[in-house]
Amino acid sequence: MDKAALINKYWTDIYFHLHYHHKEKVTHQMIRILQLVDKKTNAGINEVGSSLKVSHNTASEHVKRIIERGYLFKKRDTLDERKVILCLTDLGKEVLHRNTGLDEEKLNGILSELNPEEKGTVELALKLLSERAKKCTSS
């Protein structure tokens, strides 16, 4: 197994065992849109469409449903009043965290079992991967 496949296996094992139990029914596409809004500055409908590889109208319908659920809201760009920016609500942030993050209680339990050097190694490795991933041009 090559390194990328091995790291991917480790990541999926970690997520499988440490994810939160999901409370709300959300689609994979909804989560991808919430992630895009969270990670990309000034994301709007065009960015959603490009990211999902769907038409502007389809992206707009997806966003409309997410707004109706109270996970997103729209605001005007302060530099260009014609542009609408999507923002996460507090509820949207919670839903995104519960559907993409690790259960911090479980994670803290594991971290408490590691010695300081192991904790530092884990943190440094994930920090390096995170920093490099942010530079990756494909999404």
From TrEMBL:
HTH marR-type domain residues: 1-131
Compartment(s) where it occurs, according to its Swiss-Prot or TrEMBL record: Cytoplasm
Major localization listed first in the record, in broad terms: cytoplasm
Record has Transcription as a keyword: yes
Q: Tell whether Transmembrane helix is among the UniProt keywords.
A: no
| Keyword entries, A-Z | DNA-binding, Transcription, Transcription regulation
Question: Origin, by domain of life?
Answer: Bacteria
**Cited Pfam families:** Staph_reg_Sar_Rot
Q: Which Gene3D superfamilies match?
A: Winged helix-like DNA-binding domain superfamily/Winged helix DNA-binding domain
Q: Which family does it belong to?
A: Belongs to the SarZ family.
| Name of the featured protein | HTH-type transcriptional regulator SarZ
